[in-house]
Design brief:
With 232 residues, the chain is of the alpha+beta class. It has a single domain, classed as Aminopeptidase (3-Layer(aba) Sandwich). The protein has an 8-stranded mixed beta sheet, with helices on both faces. The longest helix is centred in the middle third of the chain and has 17 residues. It is globular, with a radius of gyration of 16 Å. The chain starts with 43 loop residues before the first strand and ends in a 15-residue tail after the last strand. The N terminus and C terminus are likely disordered.
Length: 232
């Protein structure tokens, strides 16, 4: 989605922005990327109202960079990476890293757009494997001119279902700062439960250091061992 990792949902005053869906440019030797699933989510998700989510590719880099730069004031309170405007080269670099992460099964990055403007980008989302085995974290942001239309909720809902359909994934999380009430409304509307409130480092101006951890878990199919290995 944008330019680095962050763990704040979207702006409370504007709604619909969340944890940045950005992998680091490349895994380090000390922290090698680990495949979290042998499956891959759909590369294209079409949603009502002409909304779509597409796997992020190099062809999206220019439009993505333009969208990020136009929304820095909107994103800055909650997203660490929005402190500075990214160059086109930096966005292109992160887009390439995202493509590599998709192939490796560690992160799955998307751009959001509308059929009425097929070349434009109105936001970005990602499924991140940073939680460890069996889980993915959803990150998202939506451009200021498109908030209040249910776009973040619809997109996060589609990614929730896509994530829980992947082999080996039984848990999806959305994390946001406690002060970010508009973004917290997204997982609440989608039926996530508030699992806990965790202490977190303050990395963006609007953050309090109190992070809401929202969780959805896959229900076992009939005859399948329940999550945790026990049968229901």
């Amino acid at each position: 989605m944008s330019q680095a990792q962050s763990r704040s949902c979207g702006p409370a005053r504007a709604g619909g922005v969340r944890t940045a869906a950005e992998p680091t440019a490349a895994p380090t030797a000390a922290e090698p990327a680990v495949e979290v699933t042998t499956g891959r989510p759909p590369e294209l998700l079409r949603l009502p109202g002409g909304l779509w989510l597409r796997r992020r590719r190099s062809t999206h880099a220019v439009a993505l960079n333009r969208a990020v730069r136009a929304n820095l004031d909107h994103l800055r309170p909650w997203l660490e990476w929005a402190a500075e405007a990214p160059t086109r080269a930096r966005t292109a670099e992160l887009t390439r890293a995202g493509s590599a992460a998709w192939e490796a099964g560690t992160d799955f990055m998307y751009v959001a757009g509308l059929d009425t403007d097929p070349g434009g980008v109105i936001g970005a989302l990602g499924l991140h494997g940073r939680l460890g085995p069996g889980a993915l974290e959803i990150g998202y942001w939506v451009a200021a001119g498109h908030v209040g239309r249910g776009i973040a909720t619809a997109a996060a809902g589609a990614l929730t279902e896509a994530a829980l359909a992947l082999p080996g994934i039984s848990r999806v999380e959305i994390r946001c700062d406690r002060a970010n009430t508009a973004s917290a409304a997204v997982p609440r509307k989608l039926g996530y439960r508030l699992d806990r409130i965790a202490e977190a480092a303050v990395r963006a101006p609007g953050e309090t250091g109190r992070q809401l951890v929202w969780v959805r878990e896959r229900r076992p199919h009939p005859g399948e061992p329940a999550i945790g290995g026990r049968r229901p």
